[in-house]
Design brief:
The complex is a heterodimer of chains A (about 375) and B (about 100).
Chain A lengths: L9 H17 L8 E7 H9 L2 H4 L4 E8 L7 H11 L4 E5 L13 H6 L4 E3 L3 H10 L4 E8 L4 H14 L4 E7 L3 H9 L7 E4 L1 H7 L6 H6 L3 E3 L4 H16 L5 E3 L11 H10 E3 L2 E4 L3 E4 L3 E3 L8 H5 L18 H5 L31 H19 L4
Parallel strand pairs in A: 1-2, 1-7, 3-4, 3-5, 5-6, 7-8, 8-9
Antiparallel strand pairs in A: 10-13, 11-12
Chain B lengths: L4 E10 L4 E6 L2 E6 L15 E5 L2 E6 L1 H14 L1 H17 L3
Antiparallel strand pairs in B: 1-2, 1-4, 2-3, 4-5
The chains are: A alpha/beta (about 375), B alpha+beta (about 100).
């Protein structure tokens, strides 16, 4: 069998896969009436496809790919605002490479760069800070993007800029948080989820308590998982066991990195610098209450929205999506990527139309990248031993 | 971005700003260690950490670091991280 041999410990993986099958049978999960488990994190989505986990587990388990790829949920309007800032002659606009090809309504940052804007790919907000120190006559803007995992990095960078009195460094804040969209998905009457595999590195920062509402208010299990394939399989088994035993709890499979209370230093920096926005727009999901962060007044000097007069508060905002794009349906589990008429035709990783095709953590890009390889393995999978 | 990359702290570059040097698969990088510092920042030398966008976010065991690196290589994410680090260096140096 092709994929399982790539596991570090194929025997252990086989044991977990067998246990998953046993519990799935016990609770009556079938291909037609599957147990639907959402992996929230885009990194998990990538790993599931890379190792073909959805094909390895019992056919009664269906993975729903959640909204946990920050590049994928970035709305076109925010890309447009990035470009508006980046095209100012005094600006050096710095961004993670992932965001370069996300299409706005007119163009992407990559296209803006080709047209002459000073857009630079960086690895870290520390690079942007260094650019600000070296270029005092320019305005250096960092595109703050990501969930709770990367939020501490920009919070600490803003505090460092404040200590140094760097007057030419700002952050265009697009940080978002995991729990509010999960609540929005659970409140959606079209959504039928049986449990969650929770994000590992987001939880490393925030801990596991912020997920308490999932079992308490919605009666659904959630298991925070690591990124190795065996971690994911074990987490699926833990979700299934909760269902089989009639339990709904927050469990932590990734205890070697994740603590119940998270990382205190990270949380302190984030709370000092950021506060929740009343609402924030997600591509495919629309505006979600208190799902995004903004820079507190105390640090307004480092807020690109304030300095350049763009974004929330600058005027009425129109939610724009590419015509015919089904990213929203895919993200809420109502459509598989291959169900979209644009998949593989107008929309490919080279020329992405929807955000889910842009990042390697997006469900569509993962389907595309591993599709051929998986089809070749299908015959082997028919006889897994 | 969300998977991070493991490294070992080899020296403290600037204790006042919590900047250390980490060895990431043989590549030396400056990382901010505020989130893992705890008490004396110098105690971090020799520790293994999980690094996200230039910030050490968790202390991990060496064995966990090795396994994580293997998974990242398998996912193609390790190369993406190294490419991003190089891109960052070029951006700071003003090399187009």
């Amino acid at each position: 069998m092709k994929y399982i041999e790539e596991f570090r410990d194929p025997k252990a993986a086989r044991g977990v896969i067998d246990a998953i099958a046993q519990v799935a049978d016990e609770i009556g999960a079938t291909r037609d009436a599957p147990v639907r488990i959402m992996e929230i994190c885009g990194g998990h989505t990538h790993a599931i496809f890379r190792y073909g986990l959805d094909k390895l587990v019992h056919e009664g388990i269906e993975f729903i790919h959640g909204p946990g790829c920050p590049v994928c949920v970035l709305p076109m309007s925010r890309v447009d605002e990035c470009i508006e800032i980046a095209e100012r002659p005094e600006v050096i606009f710095t961004t993670f490479g992932d965001a370069m090809r996300v299409p706005g309504t007119g163009k992407s940052l990559l296209q803006a760069k080709a047209a002459g804007a000073d857009v630079r790919m960086v690895y870290s907000p520390l690079d942007a800070l260094e650019l600000a120190r070296r270029n005092p006559a320019r305005q250096v803007v960092f595109f703050g993007l990501g969930f709770e995992t990367t939020t501490p990095s920009t919070a600490l960078s803003i505090q460092q800029a404040d200590r140094e009195g760097l007057g030419n460094f700002t952050v265009f804040c697009n940080h978002i948080t995991v729990p509010p969209p999960i609540k929005a998905l659970l409140d959606d009457p079209h959504m039928v989820l049986d449990g969650f595999v929770g994000p590992g590195h987001v939880s490393m920062v925030i801990g596991t308590r912020p997920y308490d509402f999932i079992p308490q208010d919605y009666g659904k299990p959630i298991v925070v998982a690591g990124f190795e394939p065996l971690d994911l399989l074990q987490s699926v088994l833990m979700v299934l066991r909760q269902i089989a035993e009639g339990r709904a709890e927050v469990e932590n499979q990734y205890a070697r990195v994740v603590r119940k209370d998270g990382n205190a230093a990270s949380l302190a920096a984030v709370h000092a610098v950021y506060e929740p926005r009343p609402s924030f727009e997600w591509r495919g999901l629309g505006e979600i209450d208190k799902s995004g962060l903004r820079i507190r007044d105390r640090y307004a000097a480092f807020d690109a929205e304030v300095r350049f007069g763009v974004g929330y508060g600058a005027g009425p905002r129109k939610i724009a999506e590419p015509e015919g794009c089904s990213c929203g349906f895919v993200m809420t589990g109502r459509m598989k990527p291959t169900g979209c008429s644009m998949f593989g035709s107008e929309c490919t990783p080279e020329t992405p139309l929807g955000a889910l095709m842009v990042s390697s953590e997006g469900a569509c890009a993962a389907y595309w990248q591993y599709g051929g390889r998986r089809q070749a393995a299908e015959t082997e999978l028919a006889d897994p031993r | 971005m969300c998977l991070g990359i493991p490294g070992q702290i080899v020296e403290i570059a600037d204790a006042a700003t919590n900047i250390a040097v980490a060895d990431v698969s043989g590549v030396r990088r400056r990382v901010n260690v505020t989130c893992v510092a705890g008490g004396d920042v110098n105690d971090l030398v020799g520790c293994w950490v999980l690094i996200h966008v230039g910030f050490a976010m968790a202390l991990i065991y060496e064995d966990e670091a090795r396994k994580t690196m293997e998974t990242l290589i398998s996912l193609g994410e390790a190369q993406e991280e190294f490419d991003a680090m190089l891109a960052g260096d070029r951006a700071v140096a003003g090399i187009p």
